[in-house]
Amino acid sequence: MTSLDIWLNILGLALIAFAVRYYPMALLERFRLPPLVRQGLRYVPAATLAGLVFPALLTHNGRWAGLAHPELWAGLVAALVAWRFKNALLTIGVGLLALWLLRSVGL
Which residue ranges run through the membrane (predicted)? Predict the structure, then answer.
């Protein structure tokens, strides 16, 4: 595969990724969604985030991890920091620090 082939593949995939995201939004912009649908769509980001985060916090290798799982406790610390300070960078930093500390003490 030549350098040109690689760049053409990257460009093609970028165009596909753009089209998949842009065209549904452009089409939906023409229609007025019912209030109930708009209200329901407001919960999609939180539900998606929960679906990504909670399995990592509660399971290990596809099984319930139990209470001795450091990711669970670091996640709880991060959730408390997020709730109290409402600062994403601080939440990430404190969560990572808590995870590092918990793993270093052998939890």
Answer: 6-28, 40-60, 72-102
Domain range spanning residue 85? 42-105
Q: For the whole prediction, is pTM greater than 0.90? A: no
Cα separation, 89 vs 91, whole angstroms: 5
Predicted confidence (pLDDT) per residue in 39-97, tens digit: 999 999 999 999 999 999 999 888 998 898 999 999 999 999 999 999 999 999 999 99
- Residue 37 CA to residue 69 CA, distance in Å, equals 38
DSSP3 helix / strand / coil % (the chain, rounded to 5)? 75, 5, 20
Query: Do 19 and 48 belong together in one domain?
Result: no
